[in-house]
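Exam revision sheet. Question 4 asks you to relate a sequence to its structure. Input first:
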Amino acid sequence: MLIFDSKVTIQENLSKLNEDNIKFITLRQRGVKMKKHAASIPEKKWEYIWVEAAKKKTRNVKVFEEIINLKDYKGDIRQLIIIDHSKEPIFMLTNDLTTKASELIRKYGRRWLVEQEISEQITFFHLNHLSSSIVVKVDFDLTMTVLAHNLYRKIATGLQGFQRCNVDTLHRKFLDGRANVQVINKKLLVTLNRRAHLPILFELLWLQKETQLPWMDCSIKFKIGTSS
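Answer key, structure tokens:
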């Protein structure tokens, strides 16, 4: 299923997706007539559904479904008019005529999550201001930036209550701190200064164990210190 913004393509190309049996979801640019149409729908015809929101929460939205015809689109198309707390109607178009409205809304919501991750890479990792001046190093910087972002997201999946926090919050609460590093034979002992959220970090199983670092021919072990 393709999920994209309404400005990406034109109605004729939506028909071509049907020819290749490709499902899609897109938003329709709303005009004055469309807003008036949404306002004229009787309250009893709206359906109230719960959909997933950020931080494991849910929100109640009201949805009105209809089959419409577009000027340059061949055949019928499904339109979902969605109103949430913003009170401004959202017009969603799809050629999927069978999937539940709540699932379609949830699928489109994943697109916003992708945009959020790109925004994090720009604001936190400065993806649009890479330090390298030649192409080879720029490619390397880009690769390392995306890798670092994915490692943050991987850590977040194991932190109870922080799975959907942005990278800046994860860095500030868990990683931005001091530590005492001791080298004993071929072992690195890293003692992290005590902080409020470190016990949550140490619930990660891999952090509780001693980890081998074959490229350094040593192992590393983390523990929480007795003072901040």
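Marking note for examiners. The chain has seven helices and ten strands.
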